[in-house]
Design a protein that fits this description.
By secondary structure, the protein is an alpha/beta fold. It contains 16 helices and 13 strands. Keywords: Oxidoreductase.
């Protein structure tokens, strides 16, 4: 009798695990209708030829020169580098551009004459010092814009015990930068938030009678209400980004002339960056691929150049409104989600493109999601056990730190971004956002750059280089 009961429990357990694994692999009709078409090898190759021989001219999409001083906080990151590049491309004086970060931006940008000040934004004294350094006499009288794109990205953590690891940079750092910007007389402050602040945590351990996980399909726009409780966010990262966003938005003040706003890039940002860039496409290229269970997952991605343009457009809108408050809607102190100008793609679309175009070795072997989900819980339990009770246990590896349940909360759900509000005209209360690069064009643009570097340096010099767990 006992043996029969144990057998029944075992069978039920196996069937339940199969049920959960199957649910995590489903593409519900609701999601499929939002993104019904997959890329083909032929269109990928055709788009790549265009990227090589007739690349998209980004300069046509840049807002006009504003003749201002600029401080870019986080200028060594993927987005910060592009903001600086676009400012230079539209004719702003390099002498009027200063970037603050732990690491310097690219050598190419430094060679143009911009100023780099090594800055730890968690130290308010250091931040104020970086802001107060003298400017060249010929630009010192120009008005000041601050772009704040510095952040620490720790997507795998969800327990409140680890919240300070994200909050110290993402919230305290933002407070320090905002305070220094106001004291330095800045009149425009644009901060990079995240589209993930509105993503709700999916529940994968479903009941036997449920077909798909809760929050498995989400459509996110500017009207989507962000979660209110910590446990509703996928992890600590969006908790801290939403808190920082609220501080920036509340600081907007038309009367004093200090205008603020936030851009929420869709999850996640990709594009041409330095060798240590942690955009998802860059990591895949450097790693030579990865085992994956995400091929069917539908999500929006956004090119860093499109995101940079959104920041510059928001600056332009705020400058225009400050100059003529009665003629345009007031969009100060708001947040706009932005993405690429195409329907959401699947991770499988990206895998196909990378596998088709990369001249360096790359593979994406398929694995079931459930064993990895179970393993992620084991890793999280170990990390919590060490943190609270047994600090003498060996430090967790990078793999353990990254593969925790929160990672599934942001990568597995089908999340479709609607940025139609940002695309509205200024007269309608939008940014006039018309991103020039589709995801297909943007990824082909990145692969052309990658393959060119691989040809110059050799594949061995590219794959496996510049890896790091977290970025700031």
């Amino acid at each position: 009798m006992l043996a029969a009961a144990l057998l029944c429990v075992a069978v039920f357990g196996v069937l339940y695990l199969y049920h959960v694994n199957r649910a995590m692999c489903i593409v519900p009709e609701e999601a499929r209708n939002l993104s019904p078409r997959r890329w083909t090898v032929d269109e990928i190759k055709s788009a790549y030829k265009r990227a090589v021989h007739a690349p998209v001219d980004i300069t046509k999409s840049l807002p006009p020169r504003q003749n201002r001083r600029y401080i870019i906080v986080g200028g060594s990151g993927l987005l910060g580098n592009w903001i600086i590049s676009h400012l230079i491309a539209r004719g702003e004086s390099a002498a009027a551009i200063r970037t603050l970060d732990i690491n310097p931006p690219s050598r190419e940008l430094l060679a143009l004459g911009i100023t780099f000040v090594q800055t730890n934004i968690t130290d308010p004294v250091v931040v104020r010092s970086a802001f107060s350094q003298a400017w060249p006499a010929d630009v010192a009288g120009m008005p000041l814009t601050v772009f704040h794109s510095a952040a620490v990205i720790r997507p795998a953590e969800r327990h409140k015990a680890f919240l300070p690891l994200s909050r110290n940079v993402n919230v305290r750092g933002t407070i320090n930068v905002l305070d220094a910007a106001q004291k330095a007389g800045a009149t425009c402050f644009i901060s990079t938030s995240s589209g993930s602040v509105s993503i709700r945590r999916a529940r994968f351990w479903i009941a036997p009678w449920e077909r798909i996980p809760e929050n498995f399909v989400q459509v996110v726009d500017d009207d989507t209400e962000p979660p209110k409780e910590h446990g509703q966010f996928f992890g600590n990262y969006p908790v801290t980004k939403l808190e920082a966003e609220g501080i920036v938005r509340a600081a907007d003040d038309l009367k004093s002339g200090f205008r603020t706003g936030c851009i929420r890039p869709a999850n996640g940002i990709y594009g041409i960056g330095d060798e240590a860039s942690t955009s998802i496409s860059s990591m895949y290229l450097r790693l030579g691929g990865a085992p994956t269970w995400l091929s069917p997952t539908i999500q929006n991605f956004v090119n860093a150049e499109n995101v940079s343009i959104a920041h510059l457009l928001y600056e332009q809108r705020l400058i225009e409104h400050t100059a003529s408050p009665s003629t345009l809607p007031n969009i100060g102190g708001e947040a706009f989600v932005v993405t690429d100008p195409n329907p959401a793609i699947t991770f499988g679309d990206m895998y196909l493109l990378l596998s088709t175009l990369a001249t360096t070795p790359i593979r994406f072997p398929s694995i079931p999601p459930l064993p990895m989900l179970i393993l992620s819980h084991v890793f999280e339990w170990y990390i919590l056990l060490r943190h609270f009770y047994l600090p003498w246990l060996p430090e967790p590896t990078n793999e353990m730190l990254q593969l925790q349940p929160a990672l599934f909360g942001v990568s597995n759900p089908h999340v479709v971004i609607d940025d139609s509000r940002a695309r509205k005209s200024p007269e309608q209360g939008g940014l006039g956002y018309e991103p020039p690069l589709t995801s297909l064009e943007g990824l082909c643009r990145q692969l052309e750059h990658w393959n060119r570097l691989a040809a110059e340096r050799g594949a061995a010099a590219m794959v496996g280089k510049g890896l790091r767990t977290y970025t700031s």
